[in-house]
Design brief:
GO terms for molecular function: acyltransferase activity, transferring groups other than amino-acyl groups. With 452 residues, the protein is α/β, with parallel strands linked by helices. It is built from 14 helices and 14 strands. The strands form three sheets. It has a nine-stranded mixed beta sheet, with helices on both faces. A three-stranded mixed beta sheet has the order 3-2-14. α10 crosses α11. It starts with 11 loop residues before the first strand and ends in a 5-residue tail after the last helix. The N terminus and C terminus are likely disordered.
């Protein structure tokens, strides 16, 4: 039985995905190194560092280690300095992720790209970073570019939704559309600014414990061939439908505020409850009126690509949707091995979901599902949700979610023992060796998270 999206099939295909993480993987001790280097002990700092040990994240991907010049100045970095590093270290990641997505999409000639939709919340400039990515890739000057800002962690799916509407516009005009969608976030560079706020205001600011760096990309296509002799390659995923919703009066709960020293993360204890409360009604709206294959009767019958904003967001989703960690296996895997890379994370999760080792840890061993629900939350609070059809005959290409090769190893770069509590937490996290399919590890790692 075919999958129908009302009022008809949309003809939207994700032809390729790409993920590029930077070369360093910092563990929980890196934050402790910088904290002790620049700030005295205090109750707020102790609380944040305790949370940092038990986020369930083993490694966070970063453009640098704790000895990077940007985070070792007398004062936290300025916006100008953050922009400099975003461009020098971030843009090459976006170029690499884009090339990977283009290669899988069989885009051998970049002149075939008609549009580019990009997003970031960790830089702001005119022209935007997308201009320089397009220039590096050699895209045509006539490519229609859109850069989304202010959408935070939901930016990846917001960019995909925007690209989908552009695709449909071209379809109505009888024109082919091949849209490069790019998300780039360099989050770890605001660590000194966040630590300063924790120290000066005695605030419990947990964003500094969660965020990481990443670039990701997808190529979205409509169903009009570029020419009679160039058939559309088989999709990785078909995009069937989507929903967008803003939860009223929640803008104070989740955000990324402008500050002379970059940005400040806004993340209140209400976020896990708010995100959980909107999941089921958004899902119900997404599937309402659709003729789905037999056996897709409830959330547990789908696979889920959930943006891993934090451990309590994932566990909260489990409770309200009646699903298990294995339903969100790629989300947990990404969270544990890389952390939360804001808008770039959701494409990384979708990329990881299609790998063979992820197919081996499905709920009850039932195998991967054809239908996948993607979801992400951003400032507002907004929820982006989409329904995807996975091409189970097309396996993943480069394993884009492998842990970066360089890790911390010395006291200077965050690898030393820094106290009995940290050592005990490290022993707990190491004991079961972090495969997302190992239920005991997931339960142990995530039950200890206390963000409230």
């Amino acid at each position: 039985m075919s999958v129908l999206a009302e009022p008809r099939e949309l003809g939207l295909s994700i032809l390729g995905l790409g993920t590029q993480y930077p070369p360093y993987a910092i563990d929980a001790r890196a934050l402790e190194v910088l904290s002790k280097r620049y700030h005295p002990d205090s109750p707020a700092m102790q609380k944040v560092l305790a949370i940092n040990r038990y986020t369930g994240i083993d490694k966070r991907s970063s453009i640098g280690r704790p000895d990077h010049w940007l985070v070792n100045q007398t004062q936290p970095a300025t916006i100008a300095q953050l922009h400099e590093v975003f461009m020098s270290d971030g843009v090459p990641l976006a170029v690499s992720a884009s090339k990977e997505a283009l290669a899988e999409a069989h885009i051998d000639n970049v002149s075939q790209i008609t549009h580019m939709v990009s997003t970031t919340c960790t830089d702001s400039a005119n022209p935007g970073f997308d201009h320089f990515v397009a220039k590096s890739l050699g895209l045509s000057p006539s490519v229609e570019k859109v850069l989304l800002h202010g959408v935070g962690c939901s930016g990846g799916l917001a960019a995909l939704r925007t690209a989908a509407n552009l695709c449909l516009g071209h379809s109505m005009r009888g024109l082919p559309a091949r849209i490069l969608v790019v998300a780039l976030e360099i989050c770890t560079t605001v660590v000194r600014s966040e630590l300063d706020s924790i120290h000066q205001n005695q605030e419990t600011r947990i964003g500094v414990c969660l965020f990481s760096d990443c670039a990701s990309a997808v190529v979205l296509s409509n169903d009009i061939p570029l020419s009679p002799t160039e058939p559309i390659p088989p999709p990785v995923y078909s995009l069937l439908d989507w929903r967008h919703l803003t939860v009223p009066d929640t803008e104070q709960d989740l955000g990324f505020d402008t500050h002379p020293q970059g940005w400040k993360v806004v993340l209140t204890p209400r976020v896990p409850h708010l995100t959980s409360s909107v999941l089921e009604p958004t899902y119900s709206s997404l599937i309402a009126g659709k003729s789905l294959p037999e056996g897709y009767d409830s959330p547990k019958d789908f696979d889920w690509a959930m943006h891993p904003g934090g451990a309590t967001i994932l566990t909260g989703a489990e409770k309200v949707l009646g699903i298990s960690p294995e339903h969100m296996r790629a989300s947990y895997d990404t969270y544990i091995n890389h952390g939360n890379s804001s808008s770039a994370t959701i494409f990384s999760v979708l990329n990881r979901l299609r790998e063979k080792d992820m197919d081996a840890v499905t709920p009850g061993g039932r195998g991967p599902k054809e239908l996948v629900v993607g979801a992400a939350f951003g400032p507002g609070i907004t929820v982006e949700m989409c329904l995807l059809k996975r091409n189970l005959n097309k396996t993943g290409g480069r394993k884009g979610m492998e842990t970066p090769p360089e890790t911390e190893s010395s006291s200077e770069d965050g690898g030393s023992e820094v106290g009995s509590d940290s050592v005990e937490g490290e022993q707990m996290l190491e004991k079961d060796k972090r495969r997302v399919g190992e239920q005991e590890f997931i339960e142990r790692a995530l039950e200890s998270v206390e963000l409230d």
